[in-house]
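User: Can you predict the 3D structure of chitin synthase? Sequence below.
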Amino acid sequence: PGCFTMYRIFCDSDFHPLISDDKVFQCYRRNDIESLHEKNLYHLGEDRMLTTLLLKHFPDMRLSFVPWAVCWTIVPDTFWVLLSQRRRWINSTFHNMLELLKVRTMCGCCCLSMKLIVVLDMISTLILPASVVYATSFVYVVFWEKEPFSATTLILYGIIFGVQFLVFVVRGRLDYIFWFLVYFVLGIPVFYFVLPLYSFWRMDDLSWGSTRQVAAAPAAPAPPSPAKPQAAA
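Assistant: Sure. Here are the predicted structure tokens for chitin synthase:
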């Protein structure tokens, strides 16, 4: 959850305050942020942190997805703006997952719990660059070096991509296959290798970059200067 999140101010049943609760407000209004972990939480991912605070204080409530909601945003129009945006998103999301591990009221039992999902999500974020390197080396060894390959690995890759192609065919969106191939060739190296490495390398960069710059208002015209009195001849 992030910017496209709608919160209830009060509970429907007993009108108990939710996002307006004093406990949530006191935690959210902190100004003693010192550690790098907290700075990534409150300075870069304050919208995600607000959701985490609500889950901590109201574990009996739930989050739900509204499929018919329509939202608008301004997407990055240059690669450098995208780089700045993903740096904030990846770092703030990773640190928020660390906070979610502290929540003791997450659903599930033992290994079958949401904490396991959070841990797996954290691990997958950390190993994304290594997975791209492994996949590239696998393709090179198999198709260029003509080395024998593991049938199990080939089957796993076939299932991963085959299911995606099957979804496109079933939904009748064959044009998506072309864009999927474009994303596979150009997008995966950027989103799975370049952006995660750049984000973790610049974890101490707490700037928002160019994604939230507001154009300055045009300067008001200067008032006309009063006419100087002229001496009589």
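The radius of gyration is 25 Å. The chain has one domain: 22-202.
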